[in-house]
Amino acid sequence: MQFIQIALKRNNNKLSYQNNIFFFFQAEDGIRDAQESRGLGDVYKRQKQEVPDKTLMRIAINRAKNPSFIGLTADDAFSMTVTYPDTTNKINHGTFGKIRFFPKKNVNKLYLKITASNLYKKVSSNYKFQIQNTRNLPSDGQITLDLPPEWGKIIPDGYALSKVYGTFSNQKLIYTASFNKVAGVVTSIVITTKFNWPGRSILHIEMNNLVNPADVDKTTSFEVNTRYDGEILDETIKDDPTNRVAFLDYTPGLTLSSYSVSPLNKGEPATYSMQSSSLSEIPAGSSIELSFPANYDKLLTQPDKEIACSSKLIPLITCQVKDGRLIIPISTSIPANTVIDIQIDGIVNPEPQADGKTGGIDILIRKDAKVLQFTKDAMSVELAPTPKILELTHLSATSLNLQAKADYEICSQTDAVLPAGAQIFIDFPQQFTMPSDSYTCQTLTNNTGFSYSNPNNLICTLNRSARRITITGSTGDIQTGLRQFCYKILKVENPTQVG
Predict the structure, then answer these.
(1) Is the pTM of this model over 0.90?
(2) Number of CB atoms found within 10 A of residue 232's CB
């Protein structure tokens, strides 16, 4: 049993992480099974089996550190000795060729782009830091985001990063983050990666629901660097003016004359209606954006439903939802002080905040990346408890053939008070497209104990995006007892697919 000892004269130097050193040699004599390495500072390789003589071997020392000196090593800087265990008796010995070490590579450039959903002072905003590196950052590397102190003070105690993700991976990125403080102000955020960040790829860091500072016109520069094993790999340019954030003085630009939410129950899909006017002209190509508080789901609706926006007075383009914001594009310019009426169907009411309300909904006008007007907490309504569950007692259709028009009969029962004028909502499943402009509704007489106040004067309206039919004008004042009520909806188009 022998040891292979590789001696490297170290000169107390540091090396970079990415180097692997390979030794190729051929033993003149055979090498038999070895014991544990004695760990004496030189590099020991234990053989786990006998090696016949004249065998070509390869030893790799991974992640070694290159010396800090520049130039050619001495003749005997690298040597290899094969010895018997616990003795100094040599079996084989030899030196390796010289190695030339070059000057350390300069720190590479790192690119940073900062975007914010709102740049008004004292207003809540979502921040995104988009970072492109130059060199690969391995797992257990560090990303340090140095913050301007005038901005770091807006980060509250206990805050956590909202999201970290990269264009280089569709997997969830694992990391830890620490917030460094000076005098109670966050001065830097250090992210320790548990993933490999390939060179020349983009990493996104999101920090949501931060309230912009009240007394800052423009910050000093944000700076970022990446490190591995104490060495800086990439960094942004020092004091780069493009990495500063400028804030605007807040002056409400939109006036809401009225707004409503129906129904008001938490967890229910609802219709949000508002009428507002702008103090200045809204140019074509702009968008009206509603920013909802964090207690709303980011989708704003249920996964199987869509949100629809409409207006009787202004032309709208199809609205869209993005990260808890509702974006309503405007196709033509709107003169100042024009009444803007908007109806939004399908928003699911959230869990109420501590005061029982939805929380403030901000409204802004944006063109390209510039915010033109903004009104903070423009809407907030008090929510009602979750409604009682109705028991469905009867459901039938005159035809179950695909794409056929069928009459649907639906019965339910309740012991809740249904006052005159109450609305009955009937939501169809997601397989239904409800392509008709309107549908006819009728009351059924096969119910027990329910009094229809206007059985022949029903108002039946369709909300296609929510696949909801609303029936009004049918309920009487029911105060006590269990009652059943039934309706028929005529000529509803069946789905196009089975299921």
Answers:
(1) no
(2) 14
In this predicted model, what pLDDT tens digit does every residue of 171-215 receive, in sequence order?
Answer: 999 999 999 999 999 999 999 999 999 999 999 999 988 989 999
Nearest to 267 by CA among 349, 345, 344: 349
| All residues at 6 or more sequence positions from 59 whose CB lies less than 8 Å from its CB, including other chains | 4, 6, 22, 23, 25, 45
Unique residue bearing structure tokens 């797992």:
139
**CB within 8 A of 254, min separation 6: which ones?**
276, 277, 278, 279, 363, 364, 365, 373, 374, 375, 378
pLDDT in tens, 335-364: 988 888 999 988 999 999 999 999 999 888
DSSP assignment letter at 77? S
User: Is there a contact between 202 and 132 (Cβ–Cβ < 8 Å)?
Assistant: yes
Average pLDDT on 95-106 reads: 72
The answer to whether the beta carbons of residues 174 and 219 sit under 8 Å apart is no
Across 380-463, the runs of DSSP E, i.e. the strands, are 391-397, 405-414, 424-427, 440-443, 459-463
**In whole angstroms, how far apart are CA 36 and each of 59, 194, 332, 456?**
17, 32, 80, 96
